[in-house]
Amino acid sequence: MVRKTSKSTGTERDTSVPLSGTVKESAQQIWLAGLGAFAKAQEEGGKVFDSLVKEGMSIQRKTQSAAEEKISEATSRMATMATDISSKASGQWDKLENIFEDRVSKALNKLGVPSAKDIEGLAARIDELNRNVAKLGAKPRTAARSATGGATKPAAKRSTGRKAT
Fold it and tell me: I need a labelling partner for 124 at 20 to 30 A (CA). Which of 87, 91, 139, 151 fits?
């Protein structure tokens, strides 16, 4: 404690010396306590640092696994959505293609252009007529050959109406 000194006799000077000694002693103790705290913090600081590193690693692992889980979930959702959109789009394209084909076929029909079905039908009729003609052509020849003894007249040539150039 600090005492007020006043000017008096020489006996009071002896009491001021122990006061400065106590201040020095208190300062020395404070300094030593600080050094002790620093040494203790330095000693245990490594242990605390190591435990903090271990905790940080475990938190990082947990966070990484949670993030990877969320990413895989989002990826699967996006893949499902992409598949759905793709199937819807292909269905819409099919509808659009059918509508386009119908309209083109109607327009060509109005212009008098035969459709593929019409041409197939005509080709089938031509094939059938060719078979019938072949059958009819084969019967008279065999009948005429037998009547004349195998000799037949050559068929008359048809004119096509075109001039030979």
Answer: 139
Q: Which residues contact 109 (CB under 8 A, 6 or more apart)?
A: 115
Helix/strand/coil for 28: helix
Place of tokens 């195998």: 150
**Predicted TM-score (pTM) above 0.85:** no
129 half-sphere exposure, CB direction, 13 A CA radius: 6
CA–CA separation, 144 and 152 (whole Å): 7
pLDDT in tens, 31-45: 898 888 888 888 787
Residue 2: partners with Cβ closer than 8 Å, 6 or more residues away: 19
Amino acid at 60: Q
What does the block give as tokens for 110? 């109005």
Q: What is the spatial distance between Cα 102 and Cα 104, in angstroms, rounded to a whole number?
A: 6
**Do 14 and 3 contact (CB within 8 A), yes or no?**
no
